[in-house]
Amino acid sequence: MTTTPPENQAPETLPPRSPPLHILLAAPRGFCAGVDRAVQIVEQALARYGAPVYVRHEIVHNRYVVEGLEKRGAIFVDELDQVPDGAPVIFSAHGVPKSVPAEASRRQLLYLDATCPLVSKVHREAERHFAAGHQILLIGHAHHPEVVGTMGQLPPGAVVLVETVAAAEAIEVEDPNRLAYTTQTTLSADDTAAIVAVLRRRFPHIEGPRKDDICYATSNRQKAVKAIAQRCDALLVLGAPNSSNSMRLVEVALAAGCPDAFLVRRAAEIDWGRLAGVAQLGITAGASAPEILVEEVLAAAKERFAVTLEEIVVTRETVEFKLPKALSAPA
Number of H helices and number of E strands within the chain? Predict the structure, then answer.
């Protein structure tokens, strides 16, 4: 039986229905083995030596991670002269010039090197080429900590930075027959391939790395973004503006056909108005962004949309890196 509301009483209204949103989760995403190792080094150093433990530069490029470690007693500094005598200090995952551990040794500081082993591999390659008498071209971004660290493995002038295809076309070298290149590990694989192609065309005898320098995690996250980009109306990358691998994911998404891609550090930064009308949203996270930040975004989306989830997995990662012997030995 149907009843009519009394006169002057508005009929009961149903709550508005949440708009549907299909979320495509790229996988792999988030922490890589090198980042996980670096964070563990700080955590275990705090457990072994007690607070404070000093860290030169951000251990990884993610404020959530850095602030979490600060709450536990880590103190982040720009240079070693800010580290008191006798205090333990950790070098970031991006690597450091040789002058940094040399200064730490001179001061007899207890230091732990959290440099990603894949970055250390690039350092050793540069040293090998230098010892063989090669001029070295480093493909990378100026002022990035990893590039500063790699160039700092060798004497000034031994390594020349090449940032773009245009730079590769214009660069002059000392001897095209004694030339080698190496790369930053967190670059766009496609952009790097274009630069390498120019260098190989101009300098046919140039020597490259025995194995691709762009790390497996960077490549895998870019492949995962490519796998979903054309299905997405927009794609959100969780990461930091100073994180090279995170910024490259935005570029890769756009180049692969996604009409809109952007980076945020946390769910609180999302401009939800930008997502009005989006039916399919891609989500990924840079290699230094923990999964909890993805979960935070999913929870925020579910407050605003009727969410369905689909995870697209392009590969499974099983890589693990050992901790420094100083932390694995009995205390």
Answer: 11, 12
Q: Looking at the whole model, is its pTM more than 0.70?
A: yes
Helix, strand, coil content of the chain in percent (nearest 5): 40, 20, 45
Torsion angle in degrees (nearest 10) through CA of 260, 266, 268, 271: -10
CB 235 within 8 A of CB 54: no
Dihedral sign from CA coordinates of 150, 151, 154, 159: positive
Between the CA of residue 107 and those of 78, 104, 110, what are the distances in Å? Answer: 17, 5, 9
Q: Is 291 helix (H, G, I), strand (E, B) or coil?
A: helix
Long-range pairs of 47-54 with CB within 8 A, sequence gap ≥ 24: 48/327, 48/331, 49/88, 49/110, 52/87, 53/87, 53/88, 53/89, 53/90, 54/82, 54/83, 54/84, 54/87, 54/88, 54/89, 54/90
- What domains can you pick out in the chain, each with its CATH number? 20-32+216-313 (3.40.1010.20), 33-116 (3.40.50.11270), 117-202 (3.40.1010.20)
Active site residues: 146
Q: Is 242 helix (H, G, I), strand (E, B) or coil?
A: coil
Helix (H) or strand (E) holding 113: strand 111-113
Residue whose C-alpha is closest to residue 254's, from 280, 232, 277, 276 = 232
- Nearest CA to 55 among 33, 36, 44, 70? 70
The residue whose two tokens read 């004694």 is: 178
CB count within 10 Å of CB 185 equals: 27
| pLDDT, tens digit, 9 for 90 and up, residues 246-281 | 999 999 999 999 999 999 999 999 999 999 999 999
Rounded CA separation 54/90 (Å)? 6
